[in-house]
Amino acid sequence: MSKEKVLIIDDNKSITRVVDAIAKKMGFLTAVVHSYRQLEQVITENNEFFCACVDFNLPDAPNGEAIDFVINQGIPAFVLTGQMDEQTRQTILSKPVIDYVPKETIQSFDYVGKLLARLKANEKIRILIVDDSASARIHLRSMLTRHNFLISEALNGVEALKVLETYNDIKLVVTDNEMPVMTGLQLVPEIRKKYEHQKLAIIAISSSNQSILSARFLKSGADDYLSKPFSAEEFYTRIFRNLEFIEHVEEVQFAVDHDFLTKMHNRRYFFEQSDIILNKMKETDSNAVFAILDLDHFKSVNDTYGHDAGDIILVQTAKRLKQHFPECLTARLGGEEFCILFPNTSSEEAIGRLEFLVHHFENFEFEIPDKSLQVTLSIGMADCSDGHISETMKRADQALYRAKQNGRNQLVEAN
Ligand SMILES: Nc1nc2c(ncn2[C@@H]2O[C@H](COP(=O)(O)OP(=O)(O)OP(=O)(O)O)[C@@H](O)[C@H]2O)c(=O)[nH]1
């Protein structure tokens, strides 16, 4: 039984084939049925599904009965429908479904793919609901949990601030305005003192008919405003827009901080962070060590086995460095050159760990297509007593030069 299985229910086989292919491409397992009768059978064997994609109209269940059946089994469901009149829309939205997808064009199936990706991503996203009304919280929780979000709740602004301190995976706050202790309008600027728009979105919800309220919320730092009553489509669209903004910023930030090939931190990030770490070390009078690592005769690896093989070795080297030094700041400086900053570490300890690494590389077989090969490592190391990473780097670089001169495959400590 797998929670990673998508249940696909449609009497039209060309539609199930397309949805099946989309789900499989995304790494899901699938179960496909073409009638209500088959659906009942499948469910008796297993009702553990990630979600279900349900046809509104089946020959033996013409009025959305399959949707009710699946939801009653506790399976989150989205609906595929050929009819898109207002009556059908109302009927679908009166049920606690994830969403509906009109089977109008081929783009509808792109939407199915996006929906599945969204549902998978949502499993790691926590939303904080802030409302003093239990029924409002229950309603919002029900709408959001069917989209797989993790949920926390608070009854007023002060509680909300405490919950934000407790959970670091909250990406979105949905807040009411009128609440005892601290209102939504008071809460929003308090949140903004600590959390930027790129990290945390705020959507305010209110039934107040004061048109100025939305402007006041937006000016105090909210990202969006919803007036009650709102449709499910509007609610979800605003939730996803705001989360997508945060996710795009995260993607851009990742690209800025990481090396494209190895996904290791890059030179720019290393310099920025090493300053912060070395300042902390100075304050606590602790020792730090810097090492620069260079693969030996890498040009000949590229020349002999090709650039793609060289890339594989760089990626595997990055993986080994992250595994060996999880608590250190590691980065790819460029080309076949990497570096490590050991915080709170004596030179003796760093020497021990780096010598072990040299030995490990000497004995390690890199796997490239149809072959395995050894690539050794030279390292220059310097303690960070001069306080500036650029000075330390110069000394470590000279030590690396000596390691290369002495025959490579070794560690040399700076004078
Ligand atoms: N495959 C691959 N090769 C790279 C990349 N970046 C730099 N290189 C190659 O790394 C090689 C570095 O060569 P050299 O600087 O001569 O150093 P070396 O051959 O390792 O010699 P020593 O350092 O003296 O042992 C060059 O062939 C570059 O083209 C990359 O992203 N991928």
Automatic annotation (TrEMBL):
Domain GGDEF: 286-415
Catalytic activity: 2 GTP = 3',3'-c-di-GMP + 2 diphosphate
Xref: SUPFAM superfamilies: CheY-like, Nucleotide cyclase
A GO term for molecular function: diguanylate cyclase activity
GO biological process: cell adhesion involved in single-species biofilm formation; negative regulation of bacterial-type flagellum-dependent cell motility; phosphorelay signal transduction system
InterPro entries in the record: CheY-like_superfamily, Diguanylate_Cyclase, GGDEF_dom, Nucleotide_cyclase, Rev_trsase/Diguanyl_cyclase, Sig_transdc_resp-reg_receiver
EC number(s) recorded for this UniProt protein: 2.7.7.65
Record-linked Pfam families: GGDEF, Response_reg
UniProt modified residues of type 4-aspartylphosphate: D55, D176
GO cellular component, one term: plasma membrane
Keywords associated with the record: Phosphoprotein
Cofactors named for this entry: Mg(2+)
Response regulatory domain segment(s): 5-129, 126-243
Nucleotide-binding keyword on record: no
NCBIfam families xref list: GGDEF
Protein name, entry field: diguanylate cyclase
